[in-house]
Amino acid sequence: MTLDSSLALTGASAGAAAPACTRRDAVRLALGVGAGLALTPLLTPLLPLTRLIAQSRPLILRAIPSSGERIPVIGIGTARRYDVATEEAKPPLLDVLRRLPELGGKLIDTAPSYGAAEGVVGELVEKAGNRSKLFLATKVSVRGTDASEGVKQMEASFARLRTDYVDLMQVWNLGGTEVLLPVLRDMKSAKKIRYIGVTTSSERQYAALEQLMQKEPLDFIQVDYAVDNREAADRILPLAKDKGIGVLINLPFGRSRVFQSVLGKPLPEWTKEFEATSWAQVFLKYIVSHPAVTCVIPGTATMAYLMDNQGAGRGALPDEVMRKKIEALVAASA
Questions:
Q1: What is the percent of the chain where pLDDT is above 90?
Q2: How do residues 209-241 score in pLDDT, each as one tens digit?
Q3: Which of 69, 122, 145, 222 is most buried, judging by how many CB atoms fall within 10 Å of its CB?
């Protein structure tokens, strides 16, 4: 079995059930691995071949509107998956963070609210020795009007991430934007932060987000968007494009809902037109094909997921006709 066919099977099997554990089991089956065998030792020898395959297709980069800096369109998210407490849980995550830039990725999104994730990311990036190759994004929020609380949070984030600067600091779920944005701008001037932004993962906050985007000069917003959750495309993404604001996308698989829509289905032949070899790549390429999107951050905690997801950041993207086909396919199974 070739590596490409393995990943294609991974995506087809991933659609067999929604939970992430089922996708993991599908990867094992596709690679002929027993349920008790760890994936990382098996996949590591394949990485030179993986890089060769990946490099045969052009890496997709998008410019951050406020600066023109170009970054790869597929990053990783760390919610839940990097909230680990045991040393035994860390080696697979270290492999992912070490290999991310080698496979063409760069952006890692985390937050103090993700349990131990910030500290785990900081420790493993330090071990990997590749901080300069990464784009680290994290978050801050406050209740009330005490800006000093936000400063303390950010100083703690710098310490946990083991870095003296953060590439992107975001106000998490719009928590205290009026208090925090002036502080973030001061820290940006002091070169402690390279970019500032705000986040949400709820349509209930879209109206407040729109108002903020209209009146504040932001480098980034982060918002939820998936093929079965397209409200942001109606309201938020066009405004970001008009205002010159970069866009990070969270929940690109809709908390695994989108895999339910392709339950047991093989990839259609037409997905070859935009070079998708798995269902995950179909769904990620759909998002990336929106011109307002700067980077997508799927949760990624294994080498199998990393290789599969990063494949979506290379080669062709679906055009409008293909986007409608993807939408119709998912809607038909809703």
A1: 80
A2: 999 999 999 999 999 999 999 999 999 999 999
A3: 222
Six-digit token pair at 290?
């929106």
Distance CA 295, CA 200 (A): 15
Q: Angle 37-38-43 (CA atoms, 0-180°, nearest 5)? A: 115
Closest CA to 177 of 203, 156, 205: 205
* Cβ atoms < 10 Å from Cβ of 55: 12
* Unique residue bearing structure tokens 């986040």: 199
Distance CA 334, CA 331 (A): 5
Q: Which of 332, 330, 322 is nearest to 257 (CA)?
A: 330
3-state secondary structure of 62: strand
Q: Give the pLDDT score at 333.
A: 80
What is the reported pTM? 0.86
**Which of 199, 218, 263, 244 minimizes the C-alpha distance to 22?**
263
Question: Which range is least confidently modeled, 98-102, 264-268, 283-287?
Answer: 264-268
Q: Who's near 121: CB < 8 A, 6+ residues apart?
A: 78, 82, 97, 108, 110, 136, 161
Which sign does the torsion angle of CA 331, 284, 82, 65 carry? Answer: negative
Residue with tokens 């901080």: 131
Could you give the C-alpha distances from 35 to 26, 46, 92, 96, in angstroms and in order? 10, 20, 16, 20
| CA–CA distance, 98 with 297 (Å, rounded to integer) | 17
Nearest-10 crossing angle of helices 117-128, 147-161: 40
